[in-house]
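Worked Example 4.2. Consider the chain below.
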Amino acid sequence: MFMQVPGYVIAQMLASTLENETLRLIFNVTHDQFVGNVPPGSDLQSLVMEIIITFYLMFVITAITDDRGTGQLAGVAIGSTVLLNAIFAGPISGASMNPARSIGPALVWNEYKGLWVYILGPIVGAIGGAWAYNAVRFKPLSEITMGAFTLQL
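Applying the procedure from the previous section yields the following structure tokens:
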């Protein structure tokens, strides 16, 4: 599985760059109209927000695609997570959640201000989300909820 990661990263980077170049050409956008992400506040504020929202997204993705789940509403769950992340984090960080989503526009428009935030934040958040799900996944449900629903008299 890890052998496929470099190819997947290259494919996403290439697709994001080609998509942004195509949009720039179709809509005749000039280079002074940047459509990518630049931290609206401080870099640290945007970094923390990117870590948090990518953590949530990765946690949901790993939970939905787990072999124990049915996955019938996977698209709804993942799409809803992306929507909520964009609503709440959009004004704070731009809600990238994917380094390729920020690197593609940066390459096409030659605008690299704060790009490190959109590379480091999603990587740390995704690793944390996957780790957190795997940490709770191996515990039986009865152990996780032990005592949560018992009435103490």
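The mean pLDDT is 86. The two ends are 51 Å apart (CA to CA). Compare this with Example 4.1 before moving on.
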